[in-house]
UniProtKB/TrEMBL annotation, chain A:
Record protein name field: Dolichol-phosphate mannosyltransferase subunit 1
Tree of life domain: Eukaryota
Subunit structure, as described in the record: Component of the dolichol-phosphate mannose (DPM) synthase complex.
Keyword Lyase carried by entry: no
Species whose genome carries this gene: Aquilegia coerulea
Annotated Pfam families: Glycos_transf_2
Subcellular location: Endoplasmic reticulum
Glycosyltransferase 2-like domain segment(s): 9-177
SUPFAM superfamilies: Nucleotide-diphospho-sugar transferases
From TrEMBL, chain B:
UniProt-annotated location(s): Endoplasmic reticulum membrane
GO terms of biological process kind: GPI anchor biosynthetic process
Chief location: endoplasmic reticulum
UniProt entry tagged with the keyword Membrane: yes
Keywords: Endoplasmic reticulum, Membrane, Transmembrane, Transmembrane helix
Subunit field text: Component of the dolichol-phosphate mannose (DPM) synthase complex.
Protein name: Dolichol-phosphate mannosyltransferase subunit 3
Amino acid sequence: MEKEKNKYSIIVPTYNERLNIALLVYLIFKHLKDVDFEIIVVDDGSPDGTQEVVKQLQKLYGEDRILLRARPRKLGLGTAYIHGLKHASGNFVVIMDADLSHHPKYLPSFIRKQIETGANIVTGTRYVRGGGVHGWNLMRKLTSRGANVLAQTLLWPGVSDLTGSFRLYQRSVLEDVINSCVSKGYVFQMEMIVRASRKGCHIAEVPITFVDRVYGSSKLGGSEIVEYLKGLAYLLVTT
Amino acid sequence: MKQIIKILSILIAIAAFWIGLLESSVVPRSNTWLLPIYLIVSLGCYGLLMVGVGLMKFPTCPQEAGLLQKDVAEAKEFLKQRGIDVASD
């Protein structure tokens, strides 16, 4: 019973996600019934009362299942994972977004895939059969495809979805990779998977669907594109 | 080996092959001179083709939006019963 021994620490960085975090926690508990897991919420000082909601959830589900590890202010995504990782007690770590674009119903397939393949990393991919995206306009799709073709041609990363951030890591692998990553934002996700791939990690993929921001909309402007290209160049010369 | 070195090595190998062709004149020189332009054009075409195909085959999941709405409603109902205040403002 390999499944019994494993513990999964789910790290969720939040900023102003009081509603979403409650929905997310409910859905995680709904879909992970026979699994030992903990949820680590790394909140960057949200002014909207995210932390109060998390405290209420702790009373409901138990303080050993939901850990609130807040930071005083917005300090960036990469350091949020490092911060959460310090408090993680599982041998596997899941990283996901709080805004429900990553649906907890896929967690069992991540876990199953890891057990089947023994992979170091299981990454969610939107670009294969069974995966997909909802809520993107043509411009967003075009940018995404262009970015993907560019990265696949230049970096040969061995994974189909570089900027997706719904992933399951072996804890030791994540600790190893995360400290060598310096990028910010979603370039950070790309750097993580490329560095892991270069280190010879076994990376498996599972299809996920990505429904864009139920509340609010995501934007992709010129500055993000510039950041992406800089990130690509950085990875070209350093990995 | 850094990725940039791998890519540069490939480019240098291609360049060396091209210079070899120029020097040996197996094919007429005027044709050989055009090869780099063909290469750049075909790389561009490859990129555009991949983006185009990717766009046409872009997997979408409109049904998921509905399913998510259902899950959200279910979660809200549960949280309301447990007295967790998540009224959106």
